[in-house]
Specification:
Elements (H helix, E strand, L loop, with lengths): L11 H16 L10 E2 L2 E2 L1 H14 L15 H11 L5 H5 L5 H11 L2 H12 L5 E4 L19 E5 L2 E12 L6 E8 L2 E8 L5 E6 L11 E12 L10 H35 L3 E2 L2 E2 L4 H29 L5 H26 L10 H11 L6 H21 L1
Parallel strand pairs: 3-6
Antiparallel strand pairs: 1-2, 4-5, 5-9, 6-7, 8-9, 10-11
Helix pairs in contact: 1-3, 3-7, 5-6, 5-7, 7-8, 7-9, 7-10, 8-9, 9-10, 9-11
């Protein structure tokens, strides 16, 4: 059953890219899913480089960014990123993974030509990975879901800025070549771009987390008197949150795209298992307890795709899409959690082994419900908008 809706409305160019990406992920990337260079902190840099070289040869490296540097539309990007997600290694291989994909989008929107050449181009070419330094340790009362709590500071010193603080859950910091660092000045939040590694940015430890698909894992980092040239500030002092919002709404949505692809694949594996495995004299698919779960998966997968495409169309219209991306993040992450859980359940003992990617997809999607804002924070944000709109309507 074709789980991709309405793709006939996409350009022939986009459809052709999507076909090449899906073929590459299914026929090449999936062969690496049991590679020994995968560990609990993600794929090694050696494996990452090998996969990106294969994608480069296949013409599918960074496929959502065109040769002239322009991006596909969000709607077109959905068709591509869903397919890169068909393997947990697909986004890494095709250079569409977080945080690189979000960082590329942000820099493509706001960076000067000099910053693009120095920092963006190597990421787009798959030569360097990047990290986004915003979240801070909870035990210190730093920024998490509430970025206004940021404790990391930056202060001007001649033609430089000096940054001090701690960051937490920084994806891919270990091994990254480019970093985007957020800190607070007297004017408010600021955003800087820096070369990595830097001796002033110390990785204290790599956390053991439930997910394992992102190179470098998630790190606790100390920033100790990091000196950054003033021309490496993105925008002006105090504009950091404004630029963060440019990144966050599309990044929430591209997370949804990639993990939809992963759950489509997990559902394929569970469906194949249910149609071959017998119990109590019948195939598992013929037992309502299993067949109904797979039917519910199709419904959730389709609804997730429709929500993604709806939000993509909103962003393509020029609307910043804050509320819509929150709704998509909630609906898709919760739906995909149900899908992943049912896939494990349908497969029984086999579903919790490493013999297929199903167990890993379950773990990755569970983490997805938290990063880029947990479900509860997005619901709270929407509730505030509901209250504000209600009050406005009463005053009219």
């Amino acid at each position: 059953m074709n789980l991709f809706l309405n793709e006939t409305d996409l350009s022939e160019r986009t459809q052709e890219i999507a076909i090449r990406v899906e073929t590459f992920v299914r026929k090449t990337v999936t062969l690496y899913e049991n590679d020994p260079r995968l560990d609990s902190h993600g794929p090694s840099d050696e494996l990452s480089l090998e996969l990106k070289n294969l994608a480069r040869k296949a013409g599918v490296l960074t496929p959502h960014i065109l040769p002239d540097g322009s991006h596909l539309t969000h709607r077109e990007t959905a068709a591509i990123l869903i397919r890169t997600g068909l393997s947990p290694l697909g986004p890494l291989a095709c250079n569409t993974a977080a945080p690189d994909e979000g960082n590329m989008y942000l820099l493509g929107k706001i960076a000067s030509p000099e910053i693009r050449e120095r920092f963006l181009d190597p990421i787009v070419k798959g030569e360097k990975r990047s990290a986004f330094f915003m979240t801070e340790p909870a035990e210190d009362g730093g920024a998490g879901s509430d970025p206004s709590m940021m404790l990391t500071t930056c202060a001007p010193d001649g033609n430089h800025w000096v940054i001090n603080g701690q960051k937490a859950y920084i994806t891919g910091a270990e091994g990254a070549g480019v970093g985007i660092v957020m800190a607070k000045s007297d004017d408010g939040a600021c955003m800087f771009i820096v070369d990595l590694p830097d001796p002033a940015i110390r990785i204290d430890r790599i956390l053991d987390t439930i997910d394992s698909s992102m190179p470098g894992g998630h790190a606790i980092v100390t920033i100790d008197n990091l000196r950054v040239s003033a021309d490496q500030m993105l925008g002006q002092s105090g504009e950091g949150f404004q630029y963060a919002q440019i990144r966050l709404a599309p990044a929430r949505l591209t997370h949804c795209m990639r993990w939809l692809g992963a759950c489509i694949r997990a559902n394929e594996i569970a469906t194949n298992y249910a149609n071959k495995r017998s119990a109590f004299g019948r195939l598992l698919i013929d037992h309502e307890g299993v067949g109904f779960m797979l039917a519910e998966n199709l419904i959730d997968l389709k609804q997730a795709e429709l929500m993604i495409n709806w939000c993509a169309d909103i962003l393509d219209s020029g609307d910043p899409g804050g509320a819509q991306s929150s709704m998509a993040k909630i609906a898709v992450s919760e739906a995909l959690m149900r899908v992943a859980d049912r896939c494990v359940q349908c497969m029984g003992g086999q579903g919790v082994t490493a013999d297929t990617i199903v167990a890993q997809v379950f773990r990755e999607v569970r983490a997805f419900r938290i990063y880029d804002g947990p479900t509860e924070v997005h619901k709270w944000s929407l509730a505030k908008k509901i209250k504000r709109h209600w009050k406005t309507s009463q005053e009219m």
